[in-house]
């Protein structure tokens, strides 16, 4: 889809939007029960998904109303801008923006400030070293092209319709995750009273490691804790030669292994390596498990997401900044092991739910990309 902007009017941002600085001395007395800080606005997300309660205490006094746009003026490179879906108060590091309706359709304002050009302008006009901030007087000079109001409304309807589909898929993916968790707990509840096996008796842990005698020119991809960006999802991996690699790069990972982050295990940074891998080395901050003959690898993997395993980790974690369990702790964890055929049936059903959920999230990623592309094309 393309838009012909050749006939659109060139206009400055200050002619189509205003910055509001209304304050509430006592927000609760004005029925302003929620507050929003920069930490509540997700980078690149047009919706506010979290907030604080004014009754719990806040120094924020800047008022915003439903439909207005909250733009993070501090560290604008973080790309924090969202439309308010409720009334409240916000941080002074947030600009409260409102459309001038004779010139701009209010529904279009959130997408204008989500454009890359607008963020670039905010970054370039920011001042300060540790916490650079932009000002509305500088953003007001931002130049863009706009069509007549009726066409603005149609464009906004298109962008919001895509967003609506995205949000529906996100809701569905969360519902599926709830189904997964409930089914998983149900499976393990049904196993109660049956025999448990310690991990050390059904798996080998950290069996293969690089040593000081490893060829210094040996090259591999390094899987550290930060590489596990979500449960069972690995981000970009750096490649090293052994002589240049971090000293913690020691655990040899093979196809069929499970890799668990021992640090902050409650974050569920666990990976099941299903595809064939070559020269993959994990950090000593992980545990590499190879399932034995009595347990299905996928069944064991899913077992790590139970409340029981989370509770086990919480009881054994040590450390303040980097709470962690040890491989010795992990060896003592007990798992119900029904017959292998039964394990595989459970694993197949659980994996199917996860596969559908991941498919939905992939569609969300694609649709968000389309929306971003349209926004930048229109306002680029």
How would you characterize this protein structure?
- By secondary structure, the chain is of the alpha+beta class.
- It has 3 domains: 9-146, DNA methylase specificity domains (Adenine-n6-DNA-methyltransferase TaqI, Chain A, domain 2); 148-187 and 340-380, Orthogonal Bundle (Helix Hairpins); 195-337, Adenine-n6-DNA-methyltransferase TaqI, Chain A, domain 2 (Alpha-Beta Complex), CATH 3.90.220.20.
- It is 33% helix and 21% strand.
- The protein contains 9 helices and 22 strands.
- The chain has helices at 109-112, 116-124, 136-139, 149-190, 199-202, 297-303, 307-316, 327-331, 340-379, and strands at 9-12, 17-20, 34-36, 52-53, 62-64, 69-72, 81-83, 88-90, 94-99, 143-146, 196-198, 203-205, 219-223, 228-230, 233-234, 238-241, 249-253, 258-261, 270-272, 280-283, 286-291, 334-336.
- Strands 2-9-6-7 form a 4-stranded antiparallel β-sheet, with no helix packed on it. The chain has a 4-stranded mixed β-sheet with strand order 4-3-8-5, with no helix packed on it. The protein has a 4-stranded antiparallel β-sheet with strand order 12-21-18-19.
- The radius of gyration is 26 Å and the shape is elongated.
